[in-house]
Amino acid sequence: MFSGIYASPSSVIRKDLWTNIQMFASSHFLPWLLLGDFKEFMASNEKLGGAPVNEHRLNNFFNCINCLNLIDLGFVEPKFTWTNLQSAHKLIMERLDRAFGNNLLRFLFPNIVLNHLSHLSSDHFPITMNLLPVDVIPPKKFRFESMWLGHLDFFNVVYDFWDLFSNSPI
């Protein structure tokens, strides 16, 4: 199940969103992915510049996520997903966009990867997600072990295996 989130700029309306998400979750028991602009932080280090983080707001969001046993799916750099596009002394950067999943989602997609891309004209950084990343692992070289020659069934195993994959005798 997928829920796209675009939270309101109003903290009062966002608090209602957390309540609605909790009510929705109580009636669904499927793998669940929530992705989008939550307009909240999980920790104070997810904001750089500007006014200090409101700990009360942070706790409302954090409690909602914890209550539902959702897992922050992490990210690949850069850390922040929003900027006010101002010069250095007025610059504010925040991690507002993210993805959460429940345990069932993590079980189905244990290697899920989120990438924060570079922003172009928007104040938000685009996010891509790969549910099934492929690790490029070179095939292992076959190494013959001389101890195999001492096994009683060695030649029978070799002959039988050869017959499975070849039409010609050894």
Describe the structure.
This is Exo_endo_phos domain-containing protein. InterPro entries: Endo/exonu/phosph_ase_sf (IPR036691). This protein is an alpha+beta fold. The protein has one domain: Deoxyribonuclease I, Chain A, CATH 3.60.10. The chain contains four helices and nine strands. Strands 1-2-7-4 form a four-stranded mixed β-sheet. The protein has a three-stranded antiparallel β-sheet with strand order 3-6-5, with no helix packed on it. A two-stranded antiparallel sheet has the order 8-9. β1, α1 and β2 form a beta-alpha-beta unit. The chain is elongated.
Topology of helices and strands:
Elements: E1 2-6, H1 11-25, E2 33-37, E3 47-48, H2 55-67, E4 71-72, E5 82-83, E6 93-94, E7 97-101, H3 103-108, E8 113-116, E9 127-130, H4 154-165
Parallel strand pairs: 1-2
Antiparallel strand pairs: 2-7, 3-6, 4-7, 5-6, 8-9
Helix pairs in contact: 1-2
User: What is the name of the CATH topology?
Assistant: Deoxyribonuclease I, Chain A
CATH architecture, by name, is: 4-Layer Sandwich
Spatial order of the strands in the main sheet? 1-2-7-4
Backbone CA Rg: 25 Å
Tell me the helix content.
25-40%
Strand content: 15-25%
Characterize the largest beta sheet: strand count, sense, and whether it forms a barrel: 4 strands, mixed
The class by helix and strand makeup works out as: alpha+beta
How far apart are the termini? Answer: 54 Å
> Uncertain segments of ≥5 residues (pLDDT<50)?
none
Number of domains: 1
H and E order: EHEEHEEEEHEEH
Question: Can you give the mean pLDDT?
Answer: 84
CA-based shape = elongated
Number of strands: 9
CATH class: Alpha Beta
Question: What's the CATH H-level homologous superfamily?
Answer: Endonuclease/exonuclease/phosphatase
Number of helices: 4
